[in-house]
Specification:
This protein is 33% helix and 16% strand. The chain has 15 helices and 17 strands. The chain has helices at residues 35-52, 76-86, 88-107, 118-126, 136-140, 158-171, 193-205, 246-258, 274-277, 296-302, 304-307, 320-331, 344-351, 406-410, 418-425, and strands at 12-16, 66-68, 71-73, 144-152, 175-181, 184-192, 218-220, 242-244, 266-270, 280-282, 311-315, 337-341, 357-359, 361-362, 369-370, 390-392, 401-403. Helix 4 packs across helix 6 (158-171). The chain is globular, with a radius of gyration of 25 Å. With 455 residues, it is α/β, with parallel strands linked by helices.
Length: 455
């Protein structure tokens, strides 16, 4: 991981309890900025990006070379044209990040030295490891990895810990996101292995986090950042469909809904899992009855005729699954056009809460769903009354979600299906006592793994 080339355009998001969390990199800041300011930052980001691709970095070098996408460029106009044509999205993302950094610093979103007294600054500095035995190159260049960790512990002064984390990550050239609160810390940071090793050492040496162990820091290096089960070297996200802003997507869906013809050439495709689309979806969409995104390629293969000569409008929660899903669909060369909702349902609902998406938006945390409108499109598993509040199956050997209304739950109907319900009520039922929950229960055997659909 080379984190040195774009040093001016990356940062570590630091959240402190009571402050607004950092905006994801693919979204623009909610704070209004002037066109002039944005234009300046974009030019600066573009220049930094181009400079990071330069092979010959000597100021006296009269014949510089740039290397990008396995191609070599010998003049400024050619590398500028290449970056403009093929890396526009990356420039936008980096510009957004740079603006966020500037705005957060100006509005005090992250604590800095002026928030802390001299003794606190000295205290924070004492827990930053020495890097005098390492060169900048050793810290910023070489094999990289990402650390994921959390620790519940009492933090009396989260702003001090936040400042310490900011200084620590800056010195070690680490990027990512660290969330600090009075109840503990939660982090995802990435950099070179040399830097992450020092980061772990610093964390374990701090008195507040002495309860942690090396094994608490999970290291993740994966082939895919979203598990579709297809090698990204074979089908890359760079083959993704055309991105539509929420306004453009809204108009496209409106045109589809206004087309009364039964032979429409457009398909509105939900590429999420069935339990997500069950409680909320766009009107007149095709929502595959699949349980994992890794089933999506097989679903496409089984339903190729469904997409043949069609214009496809794809959407998912935040857009990440569409990047790979649309690329896979396009690789089949059967669709007229493939489009995807930029920023996903979440960005769409921010602008069109009463638009064409009805019901709840499924989220992967303890809430399970968030509401933007009052529609309920799903039913209770047992009585059929309108209900869209998920809970885990009450049998501790199953991890399926269940829609069981308050009335049915009071009657003891709290399992995901009659099979689990009967097993839980059986006289010889015994809890699993800590054994891993099963991803599937017996009732899923009756569901086809990959459905064959029709419009």
């Amino acid at each position: 991981m080379d984190s040195g080339g774009l040093a001016e355009s990356v940062l570590v998001h630091l959240d402190v309890e009571g402050l607004t969390p950092g905006t994801p990199k693919h979204e623009k800041p909610e704070i209004s900025t002037s066109r002039k300011c944005y234009s300046y930052m974009k030019k600066r980001t573009f220049a930094t990006f181009v400079a990071s691709k330069r092979v010959s970095r000597s100021p006296s070098d009269t014949s510089p070379l740039w290397r990008c996408c396995d191609k070599t460029f010998s003049d400024p106009s050619s590398i500028h044209k290449h970056v403009s044509n093929l890396h526009a999205d990356e420039i936008e993302q980096l510009t957004t990040v740079a603006l966020e950094l500037m705005l957060s610093q100006s509005e005090g979103a992250s604590p800095d030295q002026k928030d802390l007294n001299e003794s606190q600054l000295e205290d924070a500095s004492s827990w930053i490891p020495s890097t005098s035995h390492l060169s900048e190159k050793e810290l910023s260049k070489g094999p990289g990895e990402v650390l994921l960790y959390y620790c519940y512990c009492q933090i009396q002064d989260p702003k001090l810990i936040c400042y310490w984390q900011s200084e620590l990550c800056s010195k070690l050239h680490l990027t990512g996101k660290v969330r600090v609160a009075t109840e503990g810390i939660n982090g995802t940071v990435g950099g070179t292995k040399t830097a992450t090793k020092l980061y772990i050492k610093a964390m374990l040496s701090h008195p507040i986090f002495k309860v942690m162990q090396v094994t608490d820091f999970k290291v993740g290096v994966y082939k895919e950042i979203v598990p579709m089960g297809v090698d990204p070297d074979i089908i890359s996200y760079r083959l993704a469909g055309t991105h539509l802003e929420p306004e453009e997507f809204h108009k496209a869906v409106q045109s589809l809904l206004e087309d009364a013809s039964s032979k429409s050439d457009t398909i509105l495709l939900d590429c999420r899992n069935f339990y997500e689309s069950k409680i909320g979806q766009f009107r007149n969409c095709l929502a595959p009855d699949i349980r994992k995104f890794s089933y999506f390629p097989d679903y496409v293969e089984k339903n190729l005729d469904l997409f043949r000569n069609k214009k496809v409008l794809m959407y998912c929660t935040g857009g990440i699954r569409c990047e790979r899903g649309s690329a896979y669909l396009r690789s089949k060369n059967i669709c007229k056009e493939v489009y995807q909702l930029k920023g996903g349902i979440h960005k769409y609902l921010e602008q069109f809460p009463e638009g064409f998406y009805r019901g709840k938006l499924f989220v992967f945390d303890d809430r399970y769903a968030i509401s933007f409108n009052n529609d309920i499109i799903s039913d209770c598993r047992y009585c059929g009354d309108p209900w869209d509040q998920y809970q885990l199956c009450s049998t501790d050997f199953c991890c399926q979600l269940v829609l069981s209304c308050t009335s049915c739950r009071q009657k003891g109907l709290t399992a995901c299906c009659p099979v689990c319900q009967a097993k839980e009520q059986a006289p010889n039922y015994s809890p699993s006592h800590g054994h891993p929950h099963r991803e599937e229960c017996e009732c899923t055997d009756s569901r086809p793994r990959i459905p064959k659909d029709s419009l």
